[in-house]
Design brief:
Blueprint: E1 12-17, E2 21-26, E3 29-34, E4 51-56, E5 60-65, E6 68-73, E7 90-95, E8 99-104, E9 109-113, E10 128-131, E11 135-140, E12 143-148, E13 165-170, E14 174-179, E15 182-187, E16 204-209, E17 213-218, E18 223-227, E19 245-250, E20 255-259
Antiparallel strand pairs: 1-2, 2-3, 4-5, 5-6, 7-8, 8-9, 10-11, 11-12, 13-14, 14-15, 16-17, 17-18, 19-20
Amino acid sequence: MQGLPAATTSGLSAVSAGGLFGLALKSGAVLAWGDNNFGESEVPADLSSGTAQIAAGWLHGLGLKNGKVYAWGNDWYGQTELPASVASGVTAISSSAVHSLALLRNGQVVSWGSRTDVPGFAESGVDAISAGGDHNLVLKAGAVLAWGSNTFGQTTVPAAAQSGVTAISAGYEHSLALKDGGVIAWGHDNYGQTDVPAAAKTGVVAIDAGWNHNLAIKADGSLVAWGNNSYSQATVPKPPVCGPVTGASAGYEFGLVITDRSVPCRH
């Protein structure tokens, strides 16, 4: 993974950490850097303006513009072969290792790549989506629903996550939900990724699950990280991450955050 390009030092509205590359959204333009063995850092020209959302997978990227999904990069499992249904009316996108999800305006989920199956409960009324390694999460009327691989219990939704949930995030083999400001985690715990630290049990406003580590943003702008720390991906640096943090994304063995630099750091 290369260093951050100069263009990412200001004005970002979103970031997405993939396998060994990163994406950022700046004034509607998609920026990419890192590995480019499969064209994952070569953003389509159409996404140089007007882009609303981004999502980085293992070796491929997604962008959402005017309700249409764009895909580029590795296509070993058909992850850049977009179904006709995502050419318009899409409101959200999510990308994982080798498959992706899109949410249509009518609340229907579309899946392509290594996983194309969508259960009946995800065909209408869905509010949010998240693609994991080989499993998926959706949020529907405050309840988390899941399907796909359950080797480590990642699709066995705990009772606490079956109502009142406001956000979801699927990792490689684990899952996260946000409820009443606290993180709920389940699935594979080989790196402690489902051992939620005390700091992430209250006051959390946003979550993101990576391959084996997680990031959570708190209401005060602080960042909490836990799980695999082989490359310090779960060690929050201070500085430059001294807050307030406004966006965060956990990737394979690295993380990306957006900070509000108009607010002085307090040491």
